[in-house]
Design brief:
Blueprint lengths: L1 H22 L15 H4 L4 H19 L1 H7 L3 H24 L9
């Protein structure tokens, strides 16, 4: 049980630290897709807004990931795994759709 808390706790802590760095505008080269763009293509996007959204998503996922060990500790192993991983999956899919549609993060000319 202790190992589970260490693994989930350290993983969540790492994700929260990275989320805070993203919100502060650091680590843009860690964003998949953005780091593979050419410099001309990167100029078309509002990097601070994109990093802020990615940081918020990462922090939310880190907090939701803690649902799993809490549920297991309370005796709801299957439910905790399904609800925790299901919530993360739904939120990530929704965020990816939101971030990639409507040109929300393209610079306004």
């Amino acid at each position: 049980m202790l190992v589970m808390w260490i693994v989930f706790g350290l993983t969540s802590l790492l994700m929260i630290v990275m989320g805070v760095l993203f919100i502060k505008g650091k680590g843009g080269n860690l964003l998949a897709g953005y780091n593979t763009m050419s410099e001309e293509e990167k100029e078309k996007y509002d990097k601070p807004a994109l990093l802020k959204a990615a940081g918020k998503l990462m922090i939310l996922c880190a907090l939701l990931m803690l649902v799993i060990p809490v549920g297991i500790q309370l005796g709801y192993e299957v439910e905790a795994a399904l609800w925790g991983s299901g919530a993360i999956t739904v939120i990530v899919i929704g965020a990816v759709i939101y971030m990639n549609t409507g040109g929300r993060f393209k610079k306004k000319d």
